[in-house]
Design brief:
348 residues; alpha+beta; seven-stranded antiparallel beta sheet; two-stranded antiparallel ribbon; 49% helix
Length: 348
């Protein structure tokens, strides 16, 4: 598995800070950290990991070094699905020709402002198997979103959403659940059709909530807001890996599947984004499905503890909302988000 996390760079007053290139330069060419779509966004990418402990260590390291470099540039590194105060100028694109073409092709989506997600890659080298897993993943996407919501604040106010990122991203024409794909050929045909229709500029620009990676031999799960804490991200990665393993087992066992209608999945995703789905109920359903795989991987204790932590302390959205209620739209709120983003380390 591997994880991509996206972050905002914010000024102390909450304004977006288009300094991603400067921050990356300060890191001396660490290929794991790079600018994202907007110049006020950073993306970090872990190496391939097989254990949650090592994944946690690398995620922590990446957040710490990115935060330190951001601090030298006078900004905060903040993990939130939506910019809490204002998204910033539409012309603040990163210096990459591909991004310019995307902005030209999709101005409405770009004007809505950047959002930050967490993308988990799970190794599945057989592309036919990957397509079948994505088809079976559809009914589980709302539960994954329920566990990972982290964008209740935008425009200096409480949006009323748990994931404001989710409805904002719907402006992208391919931001949708995976289709019903019996094999990779059907998947590839759908992707080519979207590119030919002009709704994506290339395969990497198809924003399915679960897709076959255009770069790696992986399934890429893209439904989650970026995690407020490292623990949130590790929980999402561990649950996702076990769920993919469970779906592969179903396929190999010949378990029948009746994929839910796209409208039903979309309605359930909207409910999850509003925070209408009960975290406890969704977590219990997921745990029931994946516990045999967690046992086989040795991850049961960690994942169960992570779910209990969410029940006790709240999702990222609930914790972020509590901070906003305490500080309001002030620099104190921005600083508190930055403190939640980067783990307190004994030795730095």
């Amino acid at each position: 598995m591997g994880v991509e996390e996206e972050f905002f760079l914010l000024e102390p007053d909450g304004a977006v800070a288009p300094k991603a290139s400067e921050v990356v330069r300060r890191l001396g060419g660490d290929h794991r950290v790079k600018p994202e779509y907007m110049a006020y966004q950073l993306e970090t990418t872990t190496s391939v990991q097989t254990g949650l402990d090592r994944l946690r260590r690398e995620l922590t390291e990446l957040r710490v070094i990115a935060s330190d470099a951001a601090g030298l540039s006078g900004t905060y590194l903040v993990a939130s699905g939506a910019a809490p105060f204002r998204a910033g100028p539409v012309d603040a694109l990163s210096e990459q020709g591909r991004y310019r073409e995307v902005a030209r092709r999709f101005p409405a989506a770009t004007e809505a402002g950047a959002c930050c997600g967490c993308h988990v890659h799970i190794g599945v080298s057989d592309r036919d198997l990957a397509a079948a897993v994505l088809t079976r993943l559809r009914p589980w996407l709302p539960a994954l979103l329920t566990l990972t919501v982290n964008s209740p604040v935008s425009g200096a106010g409480d949006t009323g959403w748990a994931s404001y990122r989710y409805p904002t991203q719907l402006r992208w024409p391919t931001f949708r659940p995976p289709g019903i794909w019996p094999d990779a050929e059907r998947y590839d045909n759908d992707v080519r059709g979207l590119i030919d229709a002009g709704t994506a500029i290339d395969a990497a620009g198809v924003h399915f909530l679960g897709r076959i990676s255009a770069r790696y031999p992986t399934i890429e799960i893209r439904v989650a807001d970026t995690g407020l804490s490292v623990d949130d991200t590790v929980l999402f990665a561990g649950v996702t890996r076990a769920l993919v393993a469970a779906l592969i087992d179903d396929i190999r066992d010949g378990a029948k599947v009746l994929p839910p209608a796209g409208r039903l999945v979309s309605d359930q995703l909207l409910a999850a984004a509003r925070g209408a789905s009960g975290t406890g109920d969704e977590a219990a359903r997921l745990l029931k499905k994946i516990t045999p795989q967690l046992d086989a991987m040795g991850d049961t204790a960690e994942i169960y503890a992570g779910v209990e932590r969410l029940r006790r302390e709240g999702t990222g959205a609930e914790r972020q909302r509590q901070l906003f209620q305490r500080y309001g739209p002030t620099s104190g709120f921005v600083g508190a988000l930055a403190a939640e983003t980067v783990p307190v380390m004994l030795f730095r």
